[in-house]
Structure formats: structure tokens, C-alpha cells
Write a structure and sequence with these properties.
Number of helices of chain A: 4
Distance between the termini of chain A: 14 Å
Structural class of chain B: mainly alpha
Structural class of chain A: mainly alpha
Radius of gyration of chain A: 19 Å
Number of domains of chain A: 1
Helix content of chain B: over 70%
Mean pLDDT of chain A: 82
Strand content of chain B: under 5%
Oligomer: heterodimer
Number of strands of chain A: 0
Helix content of chain A: over 70%
Largest sheet of chain A: none
Number of domains of chain B: 1
Chain lengths: ~160, ~180
């Protein structure tokens, strides 16, 4: 049971962290080679998919983590608390990006608004999105470090 | 540096390598791949090529990091007699470790096939001067290469997930083989 839950927990973290690293190390530099109009279309589609992948991973991480803790998993109390804290921050960040900032970066003209104002509004939300993505990646990296930290019981690290 | 710091560093690097390989492959398949349908085909091809170029650097880095950090983790946490006294064949953890190394070799071979055999075929350009038949043959070669790249990428993801399962069985038990 420990092996199964450990496997699921590792795969879920790996998919989440790997997705965040992929966006930072592959997609961000790639944007420089794509025409701006197509970057917008790609960002919209990828952002939507990334949101669902991230939410699914975070949901599964919570389910697996709670189940593992319930059967006496290897994590210590401070590790569980730190991982739960990182998880809450990540959920808030993904929700803020997916449901608030991402739609704003593709906002349409409001009545009485000119194109310059719309452009400023979009650029501002893109800048916020960039910052949030990096904070998300930093949180995921810290969460992974907490998970591999040694603990008092069990045969191996939490991940 | 004490042994526990070595094992923490090794475990962290090992997890990062797994995350880059597994998570990156999932992101390529589930996030970037389907999004390319929304841009014109020529632009999608450029995008696929550039993203694959960047991703292959990450793939090779993680393939190099996996055995290095794995060995460091193994020797900092386990009994080294497992390897020296023939326990690698007679114990569950030894056999699991051997299976992980064999599957890692499969990933390296597949990665080499993609990088050095199929990707150059995809990147080659058909010349109109050679005639319609030659262009047709070239396009067919490129299509076959694209099919093989896609097939091998999916096989790699499946193999990597089995490697993670074997790794989890070592981390939380004594192996499953």
C-alpha cells in the first residue's frame, strides 16, 4: 500500500512540477519565435489546458496525501504541515491565474474603452501572470524539497 | 557535507529529473501538442521543431542526472554490500535496481533514435528540382519519421512511469521484483 501511494504521490508531483518547469524552460523562451497574434491564441489554449492539468494534479495530490497520512505514511508532522501549506498556496495561485488573471489577458473591449487602454490592461495582466507563474514554480520546488527531506519513520523519504 | 545532506541533495535532484522527464512529456502531449492545432500548419511545424529542440535538451539532461543522482541516493541510503556481495541478483531490491537500469537504457536508446535518426529526417527539406516523385518520397519519409517520433515518445512515457513505480518500491519497501 505504501509503495502504491508513494508511486501515485511521486507521479502526481512529477507531472505538476514538470508541467511548471516545462512552461518556464520550454514555452516561455519559445514565445519569442512566435508571432504575437498566434502567441495569444496559443496562450489561451495552453492556459486552459494547463489549468485543468494543474487542478487535476493538485486534487490527486491532496487525495493521495490524505490517504497516505491515514494509513501512517512516512511523512513527519512538520513535513505534512509544510506540504499542506505549499498545496494551499499552489491551489490559490492556480485559481488566481486560471480564473482571474488569464481571462483578463484575453479581455475584449469594454464599452467606452479605447484600444490603447485595452492593450495596457492586457499587458498588465500578462506581467502579473509571469510573476505568478514564477512564484508557483518556486512553491512547487520548495514543496518537492520538503517532500524529499528525511523523516523519522518508514523506509525512505516522503518522496 | 554529512551523508544525510548528500541523500537529501541526491533525492531532490532525482525527483527533479523525474519531474522534467515525466511532467515535461505529459506537458508536450497534453498541453502544447493539442494547442498547435490553433495555428497555421507551417507555424505549427516551426513551433513543434523549436519546442522539441528545447525539450530534448531537458530530456538528455534528466537522462544524465537520473543515474548519477540515483546512484548517489542508493549508496548514501543503502547497504553497499548489496552490490559487492552478489546481492544485486539474489535480493528483491537488487533485481529492482537492475530492472531500473535496463529500462533507463531503453529510454536512452529511444532518445538516441529520436534525436539522431528520426528528427534529422523530419528537419530535412524536399527539393523541387529532384522532381515530383522525389518530393513525394521525401514527404513519405518525413511522415513515417513523425509517426515514429510520436510512437517512441509515448513508449518512453510508459517506460518512465514503470521506472518510477520500481523506484517507489525501492523507496518504500525492498523492491517488487
Amino acid at each position: 500500500m505504501h509503495t502504491t501511494l508513494g508511486y501515485l504521490f511521486t507521479v502526481e508531483w512529477a507531472v505538476y512540477l514538470g508541467g511548471a518547469l516545462f512552461m518556464e524552460l520550454v514555452w516561455r523562451p519559445l514565445q519569442r519565435h512566435v508571432p504575437p497574434a498566434q502567441t495569444g491564441v496559443l496562450c489561451q489554449s495552453m492556459g486552459r489546458r494547463y489549468r485543468w492539468v494543474a487542478f487535476t494534479c493538485l486534487g490527486l495530490i491532496a487525495t493521495t496525501g490524505i490517504a497516505w497520512r491515514a494509513i501512517g505514511g512516512p511523512a513527519t508532522v512538520w513535513q505534512t504541515a509544510a506540504l499542506a501549506g505549499a498545496w494551499i498556496v499552489l491551489v490559490i495561485l492556480v485559481a488566481a491565474m486560471g480564473l482571474l488573471v488569464h481571462p483578463l489577458s484575453h479581455a475584449r473591449l469594454r464599452p467606452g474603452e479605447d484600444r490603447a487602454e485595452l492593450r495596457i490592461r492586457r499587458l498588465r495582466s500578462i506581467r502579473v501572470m509571469d510573476v505568478l507563474l514564477r512564484v508557483e514554480l518556486a512553491c512547487a520546488l520548495i514543496g518537492a524539497l520538503v517532500a524529499v527531506w528525511p523523516h523519522g519513520s518508514g523506509p525512505g523519504p516522503a518522496i | 557535507m554529512t551523508a544525510s545532506w548528500v541523500s537529501i541533495l541526491a533525492a531532490y535532484l532525482h525527483l527533479l529529473a523525474v519531474a522534467v522527464y515525466v511532467g515535461g512529456s505529459v506537458a508536450m502531449e497534453v498541453i502544447l501538442g493539442p494547442a498547435q492545432r490553433y495555428v497555421p500548419p507551417a507555424q505549427a511545424q516551426v513551433l513543434a521543431q523549436r519546442s522539441a529542440d528545447r525539450f530534448l535538451v531537458l530530456v538528455w539532461s534528466s537522462l544524465a542526472l537520473l543515474p548519477a543522482s540515483g546512484m548517489l541516493l542508493f549508496f548514501s541510503l543503502s547497504d553497499q554490500k548489496l552490490v559487492t556481495s552478489g546481492g544485486i541478483f539474489s535480493t528483491g531490491s537488487g533485481r529492482t535496481l537492475l530492472a531500473m537500469m535496463a529500462l533507463w537504457a531503453v529510454l536512452v536508446v529511444n532518445g538516441a533514435l529520436i534525436t539522431f535518426v528520426y528528427r534529422p529526417r523530419l528537419a530535412s527539406k524536399a527539393s523541387g528540382r529532384a522532381g515530383g516523385a522525389a518530393v513525394g518520397a521525401q514527404l513519405q519519409t518525413m511522415q513515417q519519421a513523425a509517426t515514429w517520433v510520436s510512437r517512441l515518445t509515448r513508449i518512453d512515457l510508459a517506460v518512465a512511469l514503470v521506472v518510477v513505480l520500481l523506484g517507489a518500491s525501492l523507496a518504500y519497501g525492498n523492491g517488487i521484483l
